[in-house]
Amino acid sequence: MTSAPARRGEPVSLSAALATFDELWSPRIVTAVNDYDVRIAKVEGEHVWHVHDHTDEFFLVLEGELTIALREPAGERTVVLPRGSVFTVPRGTEHKPSAPDGAAILLFEPTGTLTVGDRHDEVPAHVDATTGHALDRLMDA
To answer: Which positions ≥6 away from 81 have C-beta within 8 Å?
Structure first.
């Protein structure tokens, strides 16, 4: 389900937005910048190995810690992102985010980008293969 941003042209409290949903690996669109969605998600456990062939993927850790495993030409490596850290996965790089203890993240991607990329392993039931959901409601900050 693709939806318009929650409150375009109005301030959005990310903590209030995160409080409006509980689903894991199911991002909500909080606003848009040009042709890009700004999405937030609650995550825990592992996502799926996947690749975005035509776009980079930007991560900002709002709460907790996120780990991203990468399969690059030079081999595999893992980056660990504590709260407040950012990381961009380059287009065409196979990657698998995970958060054993849970985290809240902000993603910046072109509108319509599928959460499981253009190519991916089998998608587990706990991962929502979506282009983002609108916030159903937003509490006042």
So the answer is: 59, 61, 65, 66, 67, 68, 87
This prediction has a pTM of: 0.86
And the tokens for 107? 């993603």
pLDDT confidence of residue 39 = 94
- Asked if 139 contacts 11 with a C-beta cutoff of 8 angstroms, the reply is no
State the amino acid at position 52 in one-letter form: H
E strands, 5-93, are 28-33, 36-46, 50-51, 57-72, 75-82, 86-89
Give the CATH number, domain containing residue 87: 2.60.120.10
In whole angstroms, give the CA distance from residue 67 to residue 106. 14
Strand, helix or coil at 42?
Answer: strand
Query: Cα–Cα distance between 107 and 105 in angstroms, integer?
Result: 7
Q: Report whether pLDDT(23) > 80.
A: yes
- Give the Cα separation of 48 and 81 in Å (integer): 18
pLDDT per position as a tens digit, 89-134: 999 999 999 999 999 999 999 998 877 666 666 766 777 666 777 7
How many domains would you assign to the chain?
1
